[in-house]
Amino acid sequence: MYKILHREDLTPAIHLFEIEAPAIAKKAQAGQFVVLMVDEKGERFPLTIAGWDREKGSVTIVFMEVGMTTRKLAGLKEGDSLYAFIGPLGMPTEVEKFGTVVCVAGGFATAIVVPVAQALKDAGNKVISIMGFRNKELMFWEDKLKAVSDELIICTDDGSYGRKALVTQPLKEVLESNKDVKRVIAIGPTIMMKFAAKTTEPFGVKTIVSLNPIMVDGTGMCGCCRVEVGGKTEFTCVDGPDFDGHKVDWDILMDRQKSYLYEERVSLEHWQECCRMEGKA
Amino acid sequence: MSEKPKLNLNRVEMPKQEPEIRGHNFDEVAQGYTREMAIEEAGRCLQCKKRNCVEGCPVNVNIPEFILALREDRMWDAVDALKTNNALPGICGRVCPQESQCEVHCTLEKKGAPVAIGRLERFVADWERAQPDKPSPQITSPSGKKVAIIGSGPAGLTAAADLAKLGHQVTLFEALHVAGGVLMYGIPEFRLPKEIVQGEVEYVKSLGVDVRLNSVIGKIDTIDELLAEGYDAVFLGTGAGLPMFLNIPGENLNGIYSANEYLTRTNLMKAYLFPEYDTPIKKSQKVAVIGGGNVAMDSARCALRLGAKEVYIIYRRSREELPARSEEVENAEEEGIVFKFLTNPKRFLGNEEGWVTGMECYEMQLGEPDESGRRRPVVKEGSEFVIDVDTVVVALGTTPNPLIASTTEGLETTKKGTVVADQETGKTVKDRVWAGGDIVTGAATVISAMGAGKRAAEAINAYLRR
Question: Is B406 an 8 Å CB contact of chain A?
Answer without folding.
Answer: no
